[in-house]
Amino acid sequence: MSKVFFISDHHFGHGGIIDFESRPFKTVDEMNQVMMDRWNAVVLPEDKVFHLGDFSFLNKEKTANIVNQLHGYKHLILGNHDRGRARSWWLDVGFDEVSEHPIIYKDFFFLTHEPMYMNKHMPYVNVHGHIHGQKYEGKNYFNVSVEHWEYTPITFEQIRDSVVADEEQ
Q1: What is the pLDDT of residue 122?
Q2: Which residues contact 43 (CB under 8 A, 6 or more apart)?
Q3: Confidence (pLDDT) at 136
Q4: What pLDDT is recorded for position 169?
Q5: What tens digit of pLDDT does each residue of 8-64 get?
Q6: Do you know which Gene3D superfamilies this protein is assigned to (predicted)?
Q7: Given Cys at both, which of 34, 56, 99, 113 links 12, Cβ 3.0 to 4.6 Å?
Q8: pLDDT at residue 135 in the model
Q9: Radius of gyration over every alpha carbon of the chain, rounded to an integer in angstroms
């Protein structure tokens, strides 16, 4: 049975992010390879991955090379660093779907790149990236930036179970 995964903010090819976010890599090439390996270690070809933005800083050919090595059906929600390129560019490099706007998943989860305003009385959860190693407090936010998950996509069940655990506390 196929699974659904979430991840954001790989910043493939972005050397500065290693220092900005204290990533444990010596070079961009090492970072790129480790992140691809960790993706493919958990995602099978029949799985679906929602990438919540800021995928790559590389050119079209190098980005396509990475996308085509990654397992799964890949759905990109454009992040602030992705928007300089047209939706068609991202489809051309191999993403199966590209969204310019947030998605509502399973009538309860708002999938966005940047965290959105969530009133504490709202019964929904905003699954997001953008803020990397930071974390918003409260049960309404779930950060899937790579820095929180050892550079590995996480399953929908991990998110759902974490949200349920927060509500029980």
Answers
A1: 83
A2: 3, 5, 49, 70, 71, 72, 153
A3: 79
A4: 52
A5: 999 999 999 999 999 999 999 999 999 999 999 999 999 999 999 999 999 999 999
A6: 3.60.21.10
A7: 56
A8: 80
A9: 15
Question: Is the pLDDT reported for residue 106 higher than 90?
Answer: yes
The rounded Cα 93 to chain-centroid distance in angstroms is 17
Using CA of residue 129, residue 131, residue 135, residue 138, what is the dihedral sign? negative
Write phi, then psi, for 53 (nearest 5 degrees).
105, 160
- The pairing of beta strand 103-105 with beta strand 109-111: antiparallel
CB 98 within 8 A of CB 76: yes
Residue with tokens 């509502």: 104
Task: Write the CATH number of the domain with boundaries 4-168.
Answer: 3.60.21.10
Phi, psi of 162 (to 5 degrees): -70, -40
Q: Which two tokens stand for residue 27?
A: 């070079």
**Four-residue CA torsion sign, 93, 55, 16, 37:** negative
Exposure string of 15-34, with b = 16+ CB inside 10 Å and e = fewer, is: eebbeebebebeebeebbeb
> Mean pLDDT lowest for which of 113-117, 144-148, 153-157, 164-168?
164-168
Tell me, what amino acid is at 95?
A: F
Distance (Å, whole) CA 42 – CA 154: 8
